[in-house]
Fold:
Amino acid sequence: MPHTIHGNSGVWQFPLPLTLAFVFTAWVYVRGWLSLRSTSFNGSSPWCAFSFLLGLSLIWVAVASPIASWDAELLTAHMIQHLLLMTFAAPLILLGAPARPFLFGLPSSFMYAFLRPAVRRPVQQIGNALATPAVCWCAATAALVAWHIPAAFTVAMQSHVWHAIELASFLVTGVLFWLPVVQARADASTSAGWSIVAYLFLATLPCDILSAFLVFSERTAYPIYLSMPRQSSLSVAEDQQFAGALMWTVVTIVYLLAGAILSTRLLSPHGSARHAVEGV
Structure:
């Protein structure tokens, strides 16, 4: 039986370094948010704080709850991790508008010593290039497809390091993917607004293809699950079908909802008026 990186199923894990990192991140954000709140900055609404902290909590659930140990037994648990990180936590983090709260929450000495050199022009140019919709879409699609290749999936299941890289890539590319969507939501009057609606539609296609393969395939996509001890009543085939159906349903609903919200803003009288002003 292959060695796996996970412990007993259903056990809550509290790794100290990771716990401290989450607590510190939340503390810095809240500290900066409170500072901005005292100056009546319009990006410091309670919704922003709630969104960011909820997104941070979902990351914690994905990596430290029983879900993190169940993925050694169930593909469905692995799919839940993937969806939590890429589809829910990533946009919630971005909707929390974390840039300014972090800038105001970190000590000034740290800001001048580390962050100021990091935001010079070459770094900004690289960041702007990475934030283009084409790059964001390709990065998220590449992570989705690559980690669901059976060989790569098996490596991640058997290695602490590769499993951590897999989860981190889901989160990072999820943030990249949702960045153009959140930017378009903040300024729905831009000419690129409708292209982001198409961007969301096109993003469902790789997920649909992968989900359809998992649901309708008559063979086991990930043979490693055949050699794992199972406590669930689901067979490997049923688990695979359920994981594919879950991904298909959740991604379709979330992307459709995001597209509908953005379309509504684009079609609103306020958005149309601003389009007219820009076209003059």
Remarks:
- The two ends are 68 Å apart (CA to CA).
- Residues 16-279 form one domain.
- Residues 1-10, 272-280 have pLDDT under 50 and may be disordered.
